[in-house]
Design brief:
alpha/beta, Rossmann fold, five-stranded parallel sheet, 10 helices, hydrolase activity
Amino acid sequence: MDDLVLLHAFPLDARMWDVPGALTPSLRGQGEPDLDALASQVLAVLDERNLDSVVLGGCSMGGYVAMALVRRAPERVKGLIFVDTKHTADAPEAAANRHAMADRVEREGVGEWLVEATLPNLLGPDASDTARALVRTMILDQRAEDVAWWQRAMAKRPDSADVLEALDVPSLVLVGEHDKLTPPDVAAKLAVTLRHATSERVENAGHLPPVEQPEDFRARLERWRKQVGV
């Protein structure tokens, strides 16, 4: 799977992926908050590895970055995997909430308050203690400047329907059945925006199927890649 690139969710890091062989870059806030900057980071990684065309996947924020990359360089993507994400821009209230969290993390730093504010919405009711511990650790390990930057960048992201509708590659849309942030009906809207989408619901998972159901997640990826030939 050396042509598989997976981009992590907010406010986590590459440890959320348990997919041997996949390239899982860490996304870091640099300069003016904008997801295009993260797309540039990913493209630089592809260039360093001489990867002309990849299967690109992203969970939540990682999905937004994948869409930004497609906007920049559609020729670099031969397949897409969207996990618990959406193609629409934030509503004003959602954007305001992101800015409020960014302001607070700059004042107070990363701590238990951030775990309490995010973890309940990230995991489903059946998540294992191992999954909960991993997510908690990842949250607490993030740099405050990255958390604030990511939130501000996501708050200003554009709607990506036009980009996705024009893309002629196979796509896999996965969503946890218990996802509170981007529930199955939102994933369904994303799937119909794509030309060649396979849409699947992951049982016993919330917003992070790769963490909550890693074996199931890997099996779905492998099956889809064989089916569509990427």
